[in-house]
Amino acid sequence: MGVDTRHNKDRKVRRKEPKSQDIYLRLSVGQAVQVSGKGTNSTFNRVVLKRLFMSRNNRPPLPLSRMIWKMKLPGRENKTAVVVGAITDDVRVQEVPKLKVAEGCTPRKPCKPYIRSNGRKFERARDRRASRGYKNKPWSLPSY
Predict the structure, then answer these.
(1) HEC string of the chain?
(2) Does the predicted TM-score (pTM) go above 0.70?
(3) Rg of the chain on CA atoms, in Å
(4) Helices 43-53 + 23-36 axis angle, to 10
(5) Measured between alpha carbons, how far is 74 from 129 in angstroms, rounded to an integer?
(6) Each residue of 100-140: pLDDT tens digit?
(7) 44, 64 in Cβ contact below 8 A?
(8) Residue 88's beta-bridge partner residues?
(9) pLDDT digits over 52-106, tens only?
(10) Closest Cα to residue 85, out of 67, 110, 111?
(11) b/e per residue, 87-115, with b = 16+ CB within 10 A?
């Protein structure tokens, strides 16, 4: 009788392409591979590709305070910060210096509520938005 070896740890499991069928994501992956050159061992290009392959839940966001701190390091003046994930707002930061940023996505953009006006007569609850099927219109007198 031979020894039954476990082969589940023989290969490294990682994504080699994005699972999403989004054409813009796939175009950016293709351009990243083309720019990097397949023979280049650039750490930057490897990290960008790895983050582009990640699912949206696993793609880490970057707080604004950390990006400011990283861009203040010596030798990073007049450089462009490349962020594959989202940059989240940080309420602790009072003043934001001038930065050049290339960002892939913005957080919570599609779930922003539709608000026509900030007055009291426009309802803003989830079930009273135009995108949710019906909307409470402001009360008015009938015209005869």
Answers:
(1) CCCCCCCCCCCCCCCCCCCCCCHHHHHHHHHHHHHHCCCCCCHHHHHHHHHHHCCCCCCCCEEHHHHHHHHCCCCCCCCEEEEEEEEECCCCCCCCCCCEEEEEECCCCCCCCCCCCCCCCCCCCHHHCHHHCCCCCCCCCCCC
(2) no
(3) 24
(4) 160
(5) 48
(6) 988 877 666 555 555 555 555 555 555 555 555 555 555 55
(7) no
(8) 63
(9) 888 888 888 888 899 999 999 999 988 988 888 888 888 888 899 998 988 877 6
(10) 67
(11) beeeeeeeeeeeeeeeebeeeeeeeeeee
The single-letter code of the amino acid at 52 is L
Residue 121 is encoded by which pair of tokens?
Answer: 């007569």
Q: Which two tokens stand for residue 142?
A: 């009938």
**Which strands, in side-by-side order, build the sheet including 100-105?**
62-63, 80-88, 100-105
Give the model's pLDDT for residue 2: 84
